[in-house]
Amino acid sequence: MTEPNSEFYVYVYYDPRNFQPFYIGEGKGKRLFSHESDPQDTRKTARIRSIKAAGLEPTIRVIAKGLTKEQARLVEKTLLWSTRGLTNTASGYFKKNFRPKDTLHRTLPDFDFSNQIYYFNVGHGEHRLWEENVQYGYVSAGQRKKYSDEIRRLHAGDLIVARGKGPGYRGVGRVVSEPVPVRRFLVPPCAKDRAARGKPLVQLALKANVKDNIDDDLKCEWAAAVEWLQTTPKAHWKPKFGLYAPRGVTCHSIADQPKTIKYIEQIFDIRFGELSSLR
Length: 279
Fold this sequence. Notes:
With 279 residues, this protein is α+β, with helices and mostly antiparallel strands.
């Protein structure tokens, strides 16, 4: 049965001189013929001019038809991802659903293993202190719904890269429990402080004021247990290198930050793919 609004198709421009595809698009009606009259000066139009200068015409073929707009965009993106030597300037729709190009040499979160790698701003101030994060095996965030929502992205098995006060990475850890309001948080068995293991965090003599707004789930600190795999007393940072460390962000995936991931792997002598839970 034909789906409604299924007049879309996907087409490919081939160079008749070597039978290689050089442009992929999606559309309906006469869209596939529009590129030959495109007035812009692009790699695509330069290729078309070169073909015509040789006394030939581009070979244009529809390779999928009877599609909805969403289906056509998905087929187009699949071909854009898998075909080299194209003149397309846009990467197509569904970008987040596709593995970044030229990454087959390394494992990626959400593609090759099930858990994520998160940048986590542990900060340094009234409500949290890096040294206590390490000692008692946890990270926390809260006091505003924005920040508690961010830490609640974490799940057991996720990896986190901790950023301390100012730019710089302080450690890498594995989340071992789901975030909970701090009044319910027990120091995990992986904590470096053996005497504190199993005790409620709020009953310890902390310098960080984790009890602020303790009975309000929207404003209180939320805490997640972390097994710290590598930590350092001095933050690692390389200025003007394009590393990920935005202000005002507590917890964010760095799956699309290959330079940052590579830098962290080097300075902490780890491999995220080896540390993560494989599917």
